[in-house]
Protein 1
Amino acid sequence: MNSLARTAKLSAALAALFATAAAAQDDKTVIAVSIPAATHGWTGGVVYHAEQAEQEIEAAFPDIDVVVKTSPSATAQVSALEDLTASQEIAALVILPFTSEELTGPVEQVKAGGTFITVVDRGLTDPTIQDLYVAGNNIAVGANTASYLADQLGGEGEIVVLRGIPTVIDDERIQGFTDVIDDTNIKILDIQYANWNQDEAFSLMQDYLAKYPHIDAVWANDDDMLLGVLEAIQQSGRTEIRYALGGNGMREVIEKVMANDPVTPVSTPYPPSMIKTAIYMTAAQFHGQAPVRGTVLLDAPLITPENAEQFYFPDSPF
Amino acid sequence: MSITSAQVAARGKGWSIRWSDLGPFIALAVILVLGALLNPSFLSETNVLNVVTRSAFVAIIAIGATFVISSGGLDLSVGSMMAFVTGVMIMIMNALEPSLGSGAILVGALAALVVGALCGAANGLIVTVGRIEPFIVTLGTMGIFRALITFMTDGGSLPIDRGLRDAYRPVYFGSVLGVPIPILISLAAILLGAFLLYRTKYGRRCAAVGANSEVARFSGVPVARVQTIAYVIQGLCVAVAAICYVPRLGAATPTTGQLWELQVITAVVIGGTALRGGKGRIWGTVAGALILEAIANLMVLSDLVSEYLVAAVQGVIIIVAMLVHRFTK
């Protein structure tokens, strides 16, 4: 008897739960956000900013419900898309795809159900699927850093470069950088992979220092690696290195820029907060019917002591 | 008894046994000579100290792995465990800094040893009491430790308090009589490990269990205990490596120690320890760790190969070293 009563109570509770969930869906526009799980600094920042955007938008627009879902792999992200669409009616999907190839098909299927698609950072192989595309500019990250460095060095000198993991992102940054440097008298002594990893960047910089008796400047194409580079330079006691620059706008590096650090006076943003841009714009489409279809390419202006405040997120993990 | 007769027999056959034991050291010597020919600054004092200091982490962890592997086990979780221990240590140090000042470093380091030993004990007990293949157990704990450090850092980085940074820095960057402290710490770990493996009853039991656990059991060796202790030693070694690691970059991140388990296992096997158990070589393991770091260093110092092919050349060198080792037996 007792167990029967309990079952009845439980099913009543469940029914009530479903009822409220259904009610919530009826009067709210759902924006689903699918992003990679926090596995390194940059994706950690993406998760942080997506959650911030969720809170801010839900507080500002009570008619919009933002659902953030993180996935540790491309396959998991495909499953997450299935779960998101199966359990509720979603008006819009904001997605930062793990890989272009694997996610194109599944996103296309979500689109077929009439959902508004916003793609962030990594494009799908078929760009006609997206309604809105928001991305940073990796070529500008490399090119703007190179222009600054060329100016500061007076177009001459010997530099070393640390690159990340062999991907399109890494290739574009290196291409943007070398295209600018090729037009100067600056010589790139060496470019090697350090996999966007602080430890590997530390080791690689030690090796560069052992190999080259004179280095004018270092460029690590990501701020995580820059921290390892700076540690290696400090340990070596070498003083001829005038500039050590990174990119991405990591919190610790922005703090250096704000403090007028002589070796790292600038950084360039490739901000994980671009997910926030994408979620806000998507919300604008549904709350105020502000037209947002199109492509937004965020520029990578130099972060200097004057504007660093705008790029500084003291609570972000990145 | 059987050991002495084997040695007598070996002596009778001449140099063969000796060559194979010397294999890793000869390989290291060849790489050193080759390196010096390719770039004279390879043998410069700064470069040698850099490379040896850098190899300290893998060497220290690999000493523990020598015990685990020679006793017939395997531990894939060491890289993630290192990151996890690092994270716990930094959190404890940061929490205690306001009350203890730089004394927090000592407490944090002791806590790291306890956490490391507990992590190792967990691996060991699940393997021995749960009777599950060590490959699967440590694959599981590898994921668990990695997820924990990612959680603790929110996917970003967990830096040590600025107040502790300067006091702690010398543990990686300092030196005594010109020898960097991480090298001294590894030397202590090596000597302790060699003593334990070669000169104590426990060391012999380790090899006996690894060679044939059934025979060892019938000879009255407490197999489960011997194996569990090997994992605890591994955990302690991981903690010691973590203690040297934190002052280097002053932070734990989700990529800390990533794929170190493969370097550690490679170092142990290059060093002459049998992957199937029964034979452990502490000094060989150390040579193995040095070989791996020296090859990586040489790849940067020489302009022989394109940056895209570095990993391929490293792979070829390791395989060739193992083949040479096999055919000198």
Protein 2
Amino acid sequence: MELIENLKKADPKAIARILTIVENESEEAKEFIEKISPFVGKSYVIGFTGPLGSGKSTLIEGVSLKLAERGYTIGILAIDPSSPFSGGAFLGDRIRMQKINLRDEIFIRSISTRGIQGGLSPTIGNMIRVMDAAGKDFVIIETVGTGQDEVDVAKMVDTCIIVTMPGLGDEIQVIKAGLIEIGDIFVVNKADQLGADMMVSYFRSVLEGSPNRNGWIPPVVETVAVKEQGIDRLVDILLSHKEFLEKKGLLSLKRRQRLQLEILNIIKSKLIFLIEQQLLSSKDFEAYLDKAISRKQNPYQCAEKLLSLLIKMLLQEEDNEGKKD
Amino acid sequence: MQKKEKIRVLVAKPGLDGHDRGAKVICQALRDAGMEVIYTGLRQTPEQIVNAVVQEDVDALLLSILSGAHNTLFPRIMDLLKEKGMGNILVLGGGVIPQEDIPQLKQLGIKEIFGPGTKTQTIIEYIKENISKT
């Protein structure tokens, strides 16, 4: 396949085309993933997550530029939300990445969540794989603007960077579970604004008491991304976290987590598809619904029965797949 | 696997005009029509625009221009698209473009020019009918 040969040469058009194919999850996509899987596993994956407007895109621009200057190649996967009503999306992360748009070392791709919640895109694992096969040293993922508990990103990446800014609440917000537990590095961006010092000290005090992470104490970094302040320090810390994981032999654990999440997500999406497309429209579902309405059975009893029906459907599906092969 | 193809469109503002109200209205309308719309932001060079077209693998490129520099910038963009092997995507123009300039722009391969007052629905339908899904 010519496309795959070109992908391995990091040809931008081939990368872009294959990203589209895997994103669309066509039959072709399976074939491509099979073909590129043997070449992957070299890229280091970094995630940027945090509230909307905290400066994730601008920070990624700065960090990518510094990494490129240090001789690395970078693939950026910037995710924005899709509309739950139209399914369309407005993808605007590139607007904040003007300085790196024409760097040969950097490839930027805008991605829509395509209806999946949690801040990531359903096919993000495969899109990382494509960047990896294209030989990118670093793959950077920007999640949609997140709030409190969109934590899947931490399992997809090697280093998870939480971006926040002054004025987003007090210590109480920081103590709440969620993002605080998944960050390897915390960035207080817009640190020239009032309240930055307080934000930094909230984070430091909460992180001091947080559970042991194999000896890594998440640093808190102040940046002003639009003025390119603090970016060098952030890159240094990022590389030191990478070194830490490598030295401690923790990278393989991260990769295991990523694959676990990916496999789980594929199973979930297949199940949801089956539930929505077959179970929900089946006569049995209606029949049990009627029983529930007439109070002959309670919702739990109905669910149990329908669940066994779903399992039967699954086995049927598997049978059909087997015949195709 | 189920197929989840989406129409992907790049909306770009070439050159040095600083007004993008119109471009943003188009972006929103296309989003509401179920498309994935990537917006480049203001003051883009032809090189930046074509680079984004390649990386985003879009089906259509929409150029919005109000500065009057379309006769300089559009040909350069069309040349670069061909050079990068993206000559087959749908390219549309919009903004303030005099009637007498339209024939020569169409000769470059720009399929249609939509002036002020065009209904967004017209543009949506035009894109849906004219993109080549491979």
Protein 3
Amino acid sequence: MTPAVLEPPALEEQPRVEPHEASTRPEPPRYLARFDAEARVLHVVIMVTFLGLSATGLPLLFSDAAWGRALAALFGGFHGAGLVHRAMGATLLAAVAWHVGRVSWRAFARGERGIFWGPTSMVPQPRDVGDLFRQMRWFLGLGPRPRFEHFTYWEKFDYMAVLWGTAIMGAAGLILWFPVAASRVLPGWLFNVALFVHGAEATLAIVFIFVVHFFNGHLRPGKFPMDLVIFTGRIPEDALRHERTAEYERLCAAGAIDALTVPPPSESSIVGGRVIGAGGLAIGLALFALIVYAVVR
Amino acid sequence: MWTRLCCSCAAVAWLLAGAAAAAQSSSKPPSKSPSNDDCLACHEETVKGFAASTHGPLQCVDCHADLASVKEFPHAEKLSKVACGSCHDAVAGKYHDSIHAWAAEKAGLVGAPRCADCHGKHDIRPRTDVSSRVYRDRIPETCGGCHAGIRDQYATSVHAAALKRHDARAPVCIDCHTTHAIQRADTDAWRLSVTAECGTCHAGVVDSFRRTFHGKVTALGFTRVAACADCHGAHGILPASNPASMVSKARLVETCGRCHPGANDRFVQYDPHPNPGDYRRSAVLWWANRFYWVLIPGCFGFFGLHSALWYWRSRREGAR
């Protein structure tokens, strides 16, 4: 996560045009801004800490599996794994707290009403229920693809799951980290609940991210092997029109497309995104394979 | 003087007994080796109980092998050490790796036990024999010959009380420490393995322990967290109902506080042996368990189907 990867290239930079493209299509594909630097950095921070927390927490969750000790040994044994786990947990909590603070500030101090409701909001809304049903109908061949807005219902689910999961995991993790301090106000039996919930929520989050999120976001046909938009921040105009038709039409109608136009992602941001993304996918799928192995055996 | 007399007796006996006596003995009768009767002529007092012992059918020279070829009597006063391992090789191998063998052979401690210190010498009896030193009920006494302090602690324990009732499940020293492969009790490997020993009787309790942070971390081979003996004690284990027990209500704050300084009355409401399936033990844990048993399969079921349908539809539409 070097700044060079995440910072958008200077606006003066001219889009590079491949020679053969130039001959057949004089106009290069237009890119539109989708994620700002803040969102991209947040995604990488969550990604890295989530993978780190998974790798250091799974040995405990599957302490009876043959690979438990070996995985912990990668971090210098259980003690080292515990230190990494706490450091990663604190970083993730800080990142999410910062994000919640930023969103609150944008909503209440800057008065961005659209952050909690409307076409670009992350908050689930009636249209998401409709989109879900329309998507199901499309799956079954009974209707056209839904016309999605800025965020789809499964993206909103992912987002809310991160918020909910971090709150639950964070609270339980802090209780387990500082049990004596927690016992000044909380009863000891809550530590039992905290450990159980930390493990169960971890199972849910890990399998969800490494299977559902990976599939929906990156591995499904049409996106395979990965969708780079979250790393480069730029989406080709065609892709936006196809995947988020409602948003594209809303932007066109408002005449906002030109204002969102950015140069194509730089070579370095594409390579960086591929490296980070492929690394994350590989580690995640490897950890998922370990879980499957432990459960099946 | 005595030796000389003895020797002449032996020599006489040797001559008299002759080949007939040698042929009588059950195992190999080497014509030139001294027979048991030859030895008994002098050593009758020393080997009292030998005939009735588990080794009764053996020849003296089977164990005292260096005498098998001795022709001149009296034999040398100093005999070689008996090598029990020449027959009991598997056991000798275990003993060889034990802390007792290390103390006796490497550290040179005079009190360190060899085979005979626990099993006796000539009067060795099988462990199933109530008069044996290694009969179950007598083990604490035998080990306590050296480990007197531990024996006294054990004598106060719930385990000793069960032994007194002749409860066959009551653990004695060897159940946790093993018989021959006894290790230092302060090594990580031993501390981690002893939990399994507790589990041979207290299986459910160890299962519930394995659900806790303590149990999971020790399962990973890390010993700086509590295992059985850290909370319950080792030799003087008492039931929680006994106010003197380390895990009695009155002493929990003290016991937990040994690792968790500052532990208070609320802290010790922690359940070191939780069971999410037991509603009466903790309703909140039971509900949490139920909640996730609905949430996790529900979530994966829905999104699993969602992804499968999506894949199917995308394939049909040519991956767009």
Protein 4
Amino acid sequence: MTDRIKRPPLERSEPIRNWSTLLGGAAAGGEGAQLNDVIGRSVDLGYRVIDAYVRQGQRAAERLGGGVAETASVTGDLQELSVRMAQYASELVGLWFQAMDAALMRPGLRSGDGAPPASSPTRDPAPAPPGGEPSGCGSKWPRCDRWRLASTCGRCPTRRRSSSIRCGRSTPTPRRSAPRPCRMTTRRCCGCACACRTITRRASTAAC
Amino acid sequence: MSAPATESPATDLVPALLREYGDATRVALCEYLAPREPRRHLYSLVADYPRRGGRMLRPSLCIAAARAFGAQPADALRSAVALELLHNAFLVHDDVEDDSEERRGQPTLHALHGVPVAVNVGDALTVLGLRALIDNGATLGPRLALLLLAEAERMARESIEGQAIELGWRRDNAVSLSDGDYLEMVLKKTCWYTTIFPLRAGTLLGTRRALDGERFLRFGFFLGAAFQIQDDLLNLTGDAVRYGKELGGDLWEGKRTLMLIHLLRIAAPDERRRLGELLARPRRERTAAEVGWVRERMDAYGSIEHARQTAHALAGAAQHEGEAVLAGLPPSRDQRFIASLPTWVLERG
């Protein structure tokens, strides 16, 4: 008589209900209860630590904001702050490019180091006015190009009054006490290919 | 009944993506580690720690989070490079502050070249990391680059504050710490730059929107804390070659790990006194026999097992929190990678 084929005994006879064993923790015999205590206490402690940390941040936000700090208002504040930061950054980038333009006009000052130079794909290479660039202009008046472009254009409303200013060399003290960049409203700014429109477009995009 | 899966994401997917994203980060890193003058005491040394290897967990997590939220891989690469440079800067300074002797299987930078040179190299790595973040402006636009910079500033500040807490414990020979104290310190010192910042930076890169202040805090905290406790366990019980650091180095340094805090809490009064006296002495005045005694007491009082169970608990909490934060994402390899990290953290050797 041949023996019947029998299935080998199963490794377990009931489903796994102790989730703490899933990650390999020991849970043998009477130590199971102790293990669960440690795990439970650790998880509880972890949540208390992180929740206290989050509450600290909320209290700090309340102190700064002067009111009840709800997540939505904090997020809104952050977004508004980001928009303002982007606007300032756009202005700074424009000024930086003008300073670099002025510096690069001088021979021997072109960058040759290993780090890649920052460049903006939206930068508009505005045409140079006739007559060439006056020497020393960029170092004294970094915004000189843009002003002269605006005066060449003649239509930009923010530059109408300063169209007589040709270069910082001839007028060391401009009509205004300090040169003011073209403020960015597309409605007010003309449609000419002057740098101020580039700044406007970049700032508008950054504000989205 | 279905056959059990032969492949585990933790053992297959995670190492595969760590290799893939790590290699991409290393290639991009070369751009910032190009040799230039002064070489001998600066730029040749700046490349030392990054070239010694490492798992590249932080940059890989940053890239994976960015891709999981819809970014292109190239968008996240500079941020990943910045994170790796900042991580290496922390390591150089950390080794000086801890007076460590070995890092990634070789002598530490200050052991080879002296503390002044090492500190300066650490500063250079920090500045190079900043450079990489600034370079984001060219490809991501100034707004997003500024948001990333703000996140990086927060991360660096939290890490420095956490390190200050730990250094203060050692300086003051703190012997009455709790597990909660340890977790608070780890949250700042380790979790922010190991898990929280990479996840938040990746989310920024993918969504291109300012973040909810609490996003990824819980998941990053639990994951980073489990990672750090496991790292501390490996320092005592791991394989010397795979671990890459000096085995038992934490005991020599008197680092307040969860195991040491547990031992200080439950040891007998005379043992606690002896331990306190040992910790009050500088490293060079401790003997191998004393360090061995501490290790043996940890085994006797179950401190190692306590830390292991805590790591498991926190990894479980991380898994739970991860399911919540990753729930809305489309299924992807990167999403599975992030979801598998709590398990991988415990299984890595």
